[in-house]
Specification:
elongated, single chain, 3 helices
């Protein structure tokens, strides 16, 4: 009967065996190759996410108009504390989002 170990324990034991240069049987070598393939797939996924995010940022930045303000120009400032006070005054019992 073969016992199945959780992957976290299996990875630690395989890494320990390889660092201590212990002999691995064929199934352990195969499992180590599978884990390495999983690591490569995860790395590729991270890289593709970074590429997609960079493309999205580039597309978004093309649409953003840069504005330069000079001293004395009228601007609208955002203050979260003022907004929170307005909501409390308008809805004293709180907001019901159900």
């Amino acid at each position: 009967m073969e016992a199945f170990l959780p992957i976290e324990l299996e990875v630690m034991t395989l890494r320990t065996a390889t660092t201590m240069r212990l002999p691995l049987n064929e199934s352990q070598r195969h499992r180590l190759l599978q884990l390495n393939e999983l690591d490569e797939l995860q790395l590729k996924a991270y890289q593709s996410i970074e590429v997609a995010q960079a493309q999205q940022k580039k597309a978004f930045d093309k649409k953003v108009k840069k504005k330069e303000f000079k001293e004395g120009d009228p601007v609208m400032m955002f203050d979260a504390h003022i907004i929170a006070e307005l909501i409390k005054n308008c809805y004293p019992s709180g907001l019901d989002l159900s």
